[in-house]
Design goal:
It is a single chain. By secondary structure, the protein is mainly α. The protein has 3 domains: about 45 residues; about 80 residues, Tetratricopeptide repeat domain (Serine Threonine Protein Phosphatase 5, Tetratricopeptide repeat, Alpha Horseshoe), CATH 1.25.40.10; about 70 residues, Serine Threonine Protein Phosphatase 5, Tetratricopeptide repeat (Alpha Horseshoe). It is about 75% helix and about 0% strand. It has 11 helices and no strands. Helix 3 runs antiparallel to helix 4 and helix 3 runs parallel beside helix 5. The protein is elongated, with a radius of gyration of 21 Å. About 35% of the residues are buried.
Length: about 210
């Protein structure tokens, strides 16, 4: 019995290695096939479930990929450095499916467990979370999230732009214009953005870029 388990472990290890190589060389379908073969031998293999879930999401199979990641998270130890990325990919998948509450939950977990050498920049995660709150029309929450991104010392225009939109929807004109102004200073091409034009028009102001 012990020998049988060891043989299966080695088979799965070889299949995983083969799948990773196939994916690296653009053989996506064959890579998926090998990961699925491996998971029939070891259905609780967290790293393989995570990698397969990520591949599926990257090819647009959002629900199937998210489900694989959720399964992976059952078996990956919390200290595993790939856990934050699994949360982030799941958040992205659910946002694409318009399942915003689930997306928010997973993005928050990704931010709270973020590690420096993962696939995702922390600022990107914060911005994506803020954008989902805008989409959900939860503007106060969006303000809180974008402010937290700016508090990290981030000087990206998109963070200020998102914050300006949130303040506009909350009816806080002064804060709205202040952050839109900063966004325009950082990225002057935003003067052509339709949302930017609309807000300035509604507020009765001219877009000014120095």
């Amino acid at each position: 019995m012990k020998n049988s388990r060891e043989i299966n472990r080695l088979k799965c290890l070889f299949m995983s290695w083969k799948a990773i190589c196939l994916y690296a060389f653009g053989k996506e379908e064959k890579a998926i096939f090998e990961f699925e073969r491996c998971l029939r031998i070891d259905p609780k293999n967290g790293p393989n479930l995570r990698t397969l879930g990520t591949i599926l999401i990257n090819r647009g199979s959002y629900l199937e990929g998210a489900e694989k990641l959720i399964e992976a998270l059952k078996y990956l130890p919390p200290s595993d450095r790939s856990v934050p990325d699994a949360y982030a990919y799941a958040g992205y998948a659910y946002s694409k499916l318009d399942r915003l509450d689930e997306a928010i939950s997973f993005y928050r977990k990704a931010i709270n467990s973020w590690v420096k050498d993962g696939d995702f920049n922390k600022v990107d995660l914060i911005y994506n979370l803020g954008r989902i709150y805008l989409q959900k029309r939860s503007y106060s929450e969006a303000v809180e999230v974008f402010e937290s991104g700016i508090a990290l010392g981030n000087k990206e225009a998109r963070m200020h732009f998102g914050l300006g939109i949130a303040y506009f929807e909350l009816g806080q004109e002064e804060d709205c214009l202040r952050h839109l102004g900063i966004a325009l200073e950082l990225a002057p091409t935003l003067k052509e953005d339709e949302t930017m034009k609309h807000i300035y028009k509604v507020l009765g102001h001219q877009i000014s870029v120095h």
